[in-house]
Amino acid sequence: MQTGPLLALRLDRQQPLGLQIERQIRDLIRAQALPVGSELPSTRVLAADLGVSRGVVVGAYAQLAAEGYVALRRGASPQVAAVGHAAREDVCGDHDVPIARARFNLRPDLPDFALFPRLQWLAASRASLQRAANTDLAYGEPYGAVVLRRELAPFLARMARFGFSGKLILYAGGAADSAAGLPEEYVGLGRAEAEAIFEGADLLLNFHYAIAPPLLARFKRAALVDIDPGLLQFWISRGQLSVPRHDLYFTTGETVGTPGARFSDCGLKWIHIRPPVCLEQWPRAFDANAEAFTTVSNWDADDWIVDAQESYENTKRVAFLEFADLPRLTKQPLELALYLRTEKDAEEQHDLEKRGWRIRASREVAGTPESYQAYLQHSRGEFSCAKRSCVKFQNAWVSDRTLCYLASGKPAVVQDTGPSEFLPNHEGLFRFSTPGEAAGAFEKINSDYERHSRAARRIAETFFDAKEIAKTILSHALV
Fold first, then answer.
1. CB neighbour list of residue 204: distance below 8 Å, 6 or more residues apart
2. Percent of the chain scored above 90 by pLDDT?
């Protein structure tokens, strides 16, 4: 598939698409087929040309930018950066040294504490990595391992507090980096040992849609978990995402695979589960004096839905701006903890504040799991809008963040994403479609706040208890 006079990419739909785009563009730059300063196709143009989701291209460009091969410029096409050529010639020399990376499949609407840095480094000499890590490398240890372990240390320590010490297997690099299509190295674990664990496991519960088939094949039984209902089916049905075959397919989307769905079921049998919340980790935290309805969110991103018939921006920014004048309809204080990055974001923050919103920096109030929880539990409740795709697909989506508010006894006022057979409305949880409906919800909640606080907790206990959802998954998967 041609993407322009200077860029021709060909994709294997059975392999991770983003990795292929990264690898092919990187190879062109390293071979100097793309000179410094060359403009690359915009994310929208390249996505349309290749027939993939724009998010796949965005992720590939972001990876290349982090490695120094591409310069990203807001409002302009990406450009080949000089540093990419310098890294190839000066650091890697004449040897074809691979670029190691740790990849995380993260959603942009998660709070900041979940945005673990995408760890990047260029494989260089043994001495330079020893200096970077300030320690000696064990004999035979891969060059990047020490650096990776140091970068992951805070994450590993945090996971240990939740009982995962010695129970994590992390790998660096794309799964297609070896001839067998399997990871070449693991963090703190030998390859043979890791693969023996895979082969002995009863079940892989997989949240990574584009997992490499050879890695998937190591497991006796595999179940895919759809946490992007509507979007995942859209990507698959449009050929924008290739998902390897699994034994089972779970979805958190209430309408997925039903006659009322506004999107294809992709010929798959979907098993319905509900998004979980750990009730023990999120106890009720009633405070009659809590003041503001809040939320934690990303703001702007290069997130578009691209189809032959239409394309549209699919960001929280667009969603919230449709309700920008809501503070003028209510006396209830409203506060958004947002991840803001650019001058344009700052201008829009100023405009929202003039309209009556309180704006906080999400990194300041939700930069760790502890501060994130404290921020939610000191709120009066949640107010949040949904991305356009959720409203368009009518998937009855509810976010895991909202579940944390509900479990904490914080009533939630969230945008209606379609009819639900079980989600309550008007007690503890209010689903709105217009600014007037949202303003009315605040008034009802504040007229009997304690009742709605109890109702919020009861919703979490009744429908979203993590233990019950785990039982549902295992009862289907281990039959």
1. 198, 216, 219, 221, 222, 223
2. 53
Mean pLDDT of 284-294: 97
Residue ranges per structural domain of the chain: 1-97, 99-169, 195-275, 293-463
- Which among 344, 304, 328, 323 has a CA at the least distance from the CA of 336? 323
Which residue is associated with the tokens 């939630």? 412
Contacting residues for 200 by C-beta, under 8 A, at least 6 apart: none
SS3 311: strand
Whether the predicted model's global pTM rises above the 0.85 cut: no
Cα angle value 259/230/372 (rounded, 5°): 135
In Å, what is the CA distance from 353 to each residue of 120, 259, 328, 346?
37, 43, 12, 11
Tell me if domain 1-97 and domain 293-463 are identical in fold. Answer: no
Question: Could you say which architecture CATH assigns to the domain 1-97?
Answer: Orthogonal Bundle (1.10)
Q: If we measure between CA atoms, which residue out of 231, 181, 183, 241 comes closest to residue 209?
A: 241
Q: How many helices (H) and strands (E) does the chain have?
A: 18, 16
Helix ranges (DSSP H) in 205-342: 213-216, 231-237, 316-321
Tokens 């409305």 belong to residue: 425
Each residue of 302-336: pLDDT tens digit?
Answer: 888 888 778 899 999 999 999 999 999 999 999 99
Rg, C-alpha atoms of the chain: 23
The amino acid sitting at 475 is S
Helix (H, G, I), strand (E, B) or coil at 293: strand
Nearest alpha-carbon partner for 60 in 17, 1, 109? 17
In this structure, what are the phi and psi dihedrals at residue 295, rounded to the nearest 5 degrees?
Answer: -160, 165
Q: Which two tokens stand for residue 477?
A: 């998967």
Q: Work out whether strand 358-361 and strand 381-384 pair parallel, antiparallel, or are unpaired.
A: unpaired
Give the fold, CATH level 3, of 293-463: Rossmann fold (3.40.50)
User: Element (H or E) spanning 392, and its range?
Assistant: helix 388-393
E strands present in 137-189: none
Residue 74 pLDDT more than 70? no
46-72 per-position pLDDT tens digit: 888 888 877 778 778 877 887 778 887
Q: How confident is the model at residue 131 (pLDDT cuts 50, 70, 90)?
A: very low
CA distance 94 to 88: 8
Encoded amino acid at 321, one letter = L
